[in-house]
């Protein structure tokens, strides 16, 4: 585990990104299979109808086995898409098996923007988020663009809104002892790695999903 004391967020990000990029193809494959086993039969995954994932980039743990399994089970699946304007916005768009993808400005594959296929983030059931780093208490470090933070900012205004369930995905080697929460950081319900669960997933599996978020814009 990395000790964060004395390191800036930028330094931590660099170190953690190097670590995940250093994993070999076979280590990545094994991590992806283990992640799949951690989640595929979990009630949070089984009960969710609208699931957003990501396509792996920069050594991120690969959730594509879960993507295909969700599609096989008839769930609706979504990927993040970066808006051309305003350029700081990220939206979630439905993705179907075999759909053609393009490269966004960071050279990450994403569906061609199509407004009719986009869904408000609070109408998703489960959001699986790519992490650069995490701590065992719900803290996370992303790529630094603030895309996830901004798309989740509604949570601070609507405390009752529990949708979607936020799960971070990472390699075990991305664990940090402690990450300071910035004022805009939205804590994760749990982080799942190839080795373990970190967080409070059990509490949320028994609580009914709040529907309050669906009625308002
Ligand atoms: N797989 C995946 N998809 C995702 C994200 C992600 O983290 N992972 N995002 C989550 O936010 C969004 C993209 N956010 C990103 C933010 C910064 C950089 C990045 O690499 N920055 C470069 C500088 C690149 C440049 O300016 O040309 C760098 O830090 O070196 C990439 C993606 C949307 N899609
Ligand atoms: N709700 C918000 N409204 C406006 N700007 C925000 C908001 N949340 C984050 N930001 C901006 O985004 C930038 C990146 O934030 P941070 O370093 O926490 O990124 P991150 O959490 O690693 O990235 P991401 O959210 O994309 O995974 C910050 O400089 C911050 O100013």
From TrEMBL:
Cofactor(s), names only, from the UniProt record: Mg(2+)
Catalytic activity, reaction form: (6S)-5-formyl-5,6,7,8-tetrahydrofolate + ATP = (6R)-5,10-methenyltetrahydrofolate + ADP + phosphate
Coiled-coil zones: none
A molecular function (GO) term: 5-formyltetrahydrofolate cyclo-ligase activity
Top class in the EC scheme: ligase
InterPro entries per the UniProt record, alphabetical: FTHF_cligase, FTHF_cligase-like_sf, NagB/RpiA_transferase-like
SUPFAM superfamilies, per the entry: NagB/RpiA/CoA transferase-like
Top-level lineage group: Bacteria
Keywords from the UniProt entry: ATP-binding, Ligase, Magnesium, Metal-binding, Nucleotide-binding
EC number: 6.3.3.2
Family from the record: Belongs to the 5-formyltetrahydrofolate cyclo-ligase family.
NCBIfam families per the UniProt record, alphabetical: MTHFS_bact (TIGR02727)
Official protein name in the record: 5-formyltetrahydrofolate cyclo-ligase
Species of provenance: Azotobacter bryophylli
